Amino acid sequence: MSEAKWYVVHTYSGYENKVKANIDKTIENRHLEEQILEVQVPMQEVVEMKNGVQKASQKKMFPGYVLIHMIMNDDTWYVVRNTRGVTGFVGPGSKPVPLTDAEMASLGIRRENIVVDFEVGDTIKVVSGAWADTIGAIQSINMQKQSLTINVELFGRETPVEIGFAEVVKM
User: Domain NusG-like N-terminal: where (predicted)?
Assistant: First the structure.
């Protein structure tokens, strides 16, 4: 299996979040979680002055573009290219060009690989994020996404939740 790389997709202006949602839904429907790992609309915090008051807001770093971490093959290319709102991949002709590690580092998106000694069935405690202080058993581990899935009790039923390696400790 080839390695996943980051690609840039051009979208209609203002459709970035819609394209992200559409691709995420297609990944789920076609079970492409192992091939299309992550879809991002890079945001940055901007402080603006409005009526003499400073206001912090989120702005898109690259309006009209979406970043996708994926393994490039005919299926994934077709799914992304034929998503409503996508005008094409960035690259010469119809050949997508992946971003280099240096380009990703300058965006602040590149994450270091975290080495863990977790196994399916181990009990872990969530130490940060929305599920802080939650304890659960590992159901699955995704090394490429640097995440694991645990079941948590939500509204009286077991619900799978995906959590990053950096947010958990082994019990």
Answer: 3-111
Residue 147 near residue 69 (C-beta atoms within 8 A): no
Distances, alpha carbon 143 to alpha carbons 49, 89, 106, in Å = 43, 26, 23
Q: Which of 92, 62, 96 is nearest to 76 (CA)?
A: 96
Amino acid code (one letter) for 27: I
Here the tokens at position 69 are 């971490």
**pTM exceeds cut of 0.90:** no
Amino acid at 13: S
pLDDT digits (tens, 9 = 90+) for 128-148: 777 788 888 888 887 767 778
Per residue in 5-21, pLDDT tens? Answer: 899 999 998 999 999 99
Number of H helices, E strands in the chain: 3, 11
The encoded tokens of residue 141 equal 């581990």
